[in-house]
Amino acid sequence: MAKTIDGRALAKGLRAEIAAGVSELRARTGVTPALAVILVGDNPASISYVTAKEKACAEAGIVSHETRLDASCGEDALLQTIAGFNEDPSVHGILVQLPLPRGFDERKVIDAISPEKDVDGFTPVNVGRMLIGEECFLPCTPFGILKMLDFAGVGTDGANVVVVGRSNIVGKPVAALLSRREANATVTLCHTGTRDLASFTRRADIVIVATGRAGTLTGDMLKPGAVVIDVGVNRVEDATSPRGYSLKGDSDFESCARVASAITPVPGGVGPMTITMLLWNTLESARRAAR
Asked: Which tens digit of pLDDT belongs to each residue from 38-89?
């Protein structure tokens, strides 16, 4: 059976490191890292994510400024809110909770965030800097995946990596990061247009699956000893659960764990790392501002 890569344990250690960094920065410079979180509408999942982020900020000693806007507020009101935080020197990071309600141009909204406060790493400036290897804020989930591979002792130098999923949030950036000289992996990016997905995954030393579809990856699609990083979180009907559903990843954990050497669980794998790296980026932004 595969070794389980414990994202909760890694996140706990990193958050303790972040909290220590926040205390040190405050004592040395008087600067307290601050994150502005903007939530538009009342999407239950988004509210839950924002609440988790606020709790994590409080535990790390990071100030959290939450702004909730009604879905009918209009795009101009949202852009004005972002502009205000861009100009506020006491705010070091800005996060607009996605997805946005209908009627909002997501790309335009993201582009409005100052690259120096884009702790999600989504603006074109930070994406461009990431691609050419310049200093930037790395997108949180891909950044967390790199930390998990290192934590698990999984080497990427010369490794054959298959990324399944081409989203701008996970698939594309993690493929780019693993292609950089520091990681030095050979990366194949697969997606819905890929013919015979298994023919690619069976050659991979590391498979990163981020499709948003439960059971995309199964054990018979893996090379023995491969490492599986499962980014998906899917609600699957489960009559045995009091909630009526269970959380499943994009891989079939049981069959993959019988073949892989290491695998991330869902929940408790990649998920805890995303918010952790958001805190990491916010602290780094505050450090840059204090220079």
From this structure: 999 998 889 988 999 999 999 999 999 999 999 999 999 999 999 999 999 9
Question: Is residue 44 a contact partner of residue 37, using CB atoms and an 8 Å limit?
Answer: no
Burial class, 63, CB count within 10 angstroms (exposed 0-12 / middle 13-18 / buried 19+): middle
Is the peptide bond between 265 and the residue preceding it cis, with omega within 30 degrees of 0? no
Backbone torsion region of residue 222, taken as left when φ is above 0, otherwise alpha when ψ lies between -120 and 50, otherwise beta: beta
- Residue 115 amino acid letter: P
Q: Give the CA distances from residue 68 to residues 73, 105, 196, in Å, rounded to whole numbers and listed in that order.
A: 10, 18, 45
> Which residues are designated catalytic?
53, 97, 120
Percent over 70 (pLDDT), the chain? 100
CA angle at 144 for the pair 141 and 146, rounded to the nearest 5°: 115
This prediction has a pTM of: 0.95
Buried b (16+ CB within 10 A) or exposed e, 258-273: ebbbbbbbbebbbbbb
CA-based radius of gyration for the chain: 19
Which domains, ranges and CATH numbers included, belong to the chain? 30-114 (3.40.50.10860), 140-271 (3.40.50.720)
